[in-house]
Amino acid sequence: MTLRFCRYCDEPITDPDDAVHLWHEEGMSGPGREVWAHREHVGLVEPDTTLVRLLARVLIAERRRP
Ligand SMILES: [Zn+2]
Questions:
Q1: Which of 45, 49, 53, 59 lies 20 to 30 angstroms, CA to CA, from 7?
Q2: From the CA of 44, how far away is ligand 1's center (Å)?
Q3: With DSSP H G I counted as helix, E B as strand and the rest as coil, what are the percentages for the chain, rounded to 5?
């Protein structure tokens, strides 16, 4: 069994009954990964902002270019 980490608190989820699958995250290279959260933390997890963060990083990089 692979260790699952909670998206909200970053702690490992040791009890399988406590693990709630949120979504599948696409990897930049490779198969991507599954995103999990503790049952009690599911409602606290922010929606997937990976693309938004990525876009922001690109925009910042563009702006820093001379
Ligand atoms: Zn948690």
A1: 59
A2: 9
A3: 35, 25, 35
Q: From ligand 1's centre to the CA of 66, what distance in Å?
A: 42
**pLDDT tens digits for range 8-64:** 999 999 999 999 999 888 888 888 889 999 999 999 987 766 667 777 888 888 888
- How many C-alpha atoms does 22 have within 13 Å on its Cβ side? 22
Ligand 1: distance of its center to the CA of 9 in Å?
A: 4
Q: From 38, 42, 4, 34, select the one nearest 18 (Cα to Cα).
A: 38
